[in-house]
Structures are given as C-alpha cells and as structure tokens.
C-alpha cells in the first residue's frame, strides 16, 4: 500500500512488529539544492511539501472560486422570485463554506510544515504560501459579504 496521509500512524496502516517497510523517494539533484538556503535535502523536501500543497489548492480550488464569483455576480444582477433568491443564495453560501473549509485545510497543512530557523528559503516559501491562501480566503469571504449584504429587493432592482 502507498501511504497517502503523512500524519497516519504506522499501526493505522497495519504495520506492526515483523512488518517490512519499503521507503521510496528521489534524491534532490544539485539544481534542486541550489534553490535552498542551506543546500540541505531536508530543506528541499520542506519546499516540495509547501509547493505541492499550494499546487493542489490552485488546481482544485481556483476553478471553484472563479465559479462562485461568476455565479454570485449572475445572482446579484438577475431578477428572480423570492423563492429562487433564497434557494440560490443558500446554495452560494454553502459553496462558500465548502471552499473556506478546504482553504483552512491548506492552512493547517502549511502550519504542519515546521521549518528550522536556518532554512530561510523554506520559511520564505511557507510564509508566501500562507499569504496566498489567506488572500484566497479574503477573496471568497468578499463574495459572501456581497451576498449577505444584498436583500432580495436590491437584487430585483
């Protein structure tokens, strides 16, 4: 089996006494190590974890955020019945909550990356990733604020 959760315990994967474990990975090359402050493979591994987390967020959540923004804009400019307004608004707010929950998971993943003080590049990358994710949260929250501060009569006008 391939371990997909870095936080899982070995016993939760069915590994116990007398089990054999095969570790696989790639050794960073000199070009990869030049991108780190220390030239350390450990720092490179932290940078890779940070990059993978942000790339996953970009791939999975940016299209959803753009769709939410488009749907909210359409909703705010359309004239609908009060029943349609309530259903659509509720669905958009639910989408907001789903996206925010995923962005918070990204922040928790980044919070789990502990960079020693000497790993300046990894610390910088982590800081940038947190700021980027927080910017996405602000972006999604602004859509929710627009939805919450618009009454059905304002939508119709």
From TrEMBL:
<dbReference type="InterPro" id="IPR036533">
    <property type="entry name" value="BAG_dom_sf"/>
</dbReference>
<dbReference type="GO" id="GO:0051087">
    <property type="term" value="F:protein-folding chaperone binding"/>
</dbReference>
<protein>
    <recommendedName>
        <fullName>BAG domain-containing protein</fullName>
    </recommendedName>
</protein>
<dbReference type="InterPro" id="IPR003103">
    <property type="entry name" value="BAG_domain"/>
</dbReference>
<feature type="domain" description="BAG">
    <location>
        <begin position="91"/>
        <end position="144"/>
    </location>
</feature>
<dbReference type="Pfam" id="PF02179">
    <property type="entry name" value="BAG"/>
</dbReference>
């Amino acid at each position: 089996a391939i371990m997909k959760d870095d936080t899982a315990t070995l016993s939760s994967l069915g590994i116990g006494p007398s089990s054999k474990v095969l570790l696989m990975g790639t050794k960073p090359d000199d070009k990869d190590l030049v991108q780190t402050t220390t030239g350390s493979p450990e720092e490179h591994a932290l940078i890779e974890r940070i990059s993978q987390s942000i790339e996953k967020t970009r791939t999975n959540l940016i299209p959803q955020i753009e769709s939410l923004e488009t749907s909210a804009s359409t909703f705010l400019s359309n004239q609908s019945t009060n029943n349609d307004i309530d259903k659509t608004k509720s669905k958009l707010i639910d989408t907001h909550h789903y996206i925010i929950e995923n962005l918070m998971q990204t922040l928790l993943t980044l919070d789990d990356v502990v960079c020693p003080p000497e790993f300046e590049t990894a610390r910088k990358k982590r800081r940038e990733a947190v700021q980027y994710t927080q910017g996405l949260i602000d972006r999604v929250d602004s859509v929710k604020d627009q939805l919450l501060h618009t009454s059905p009569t304002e939508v119709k006008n």
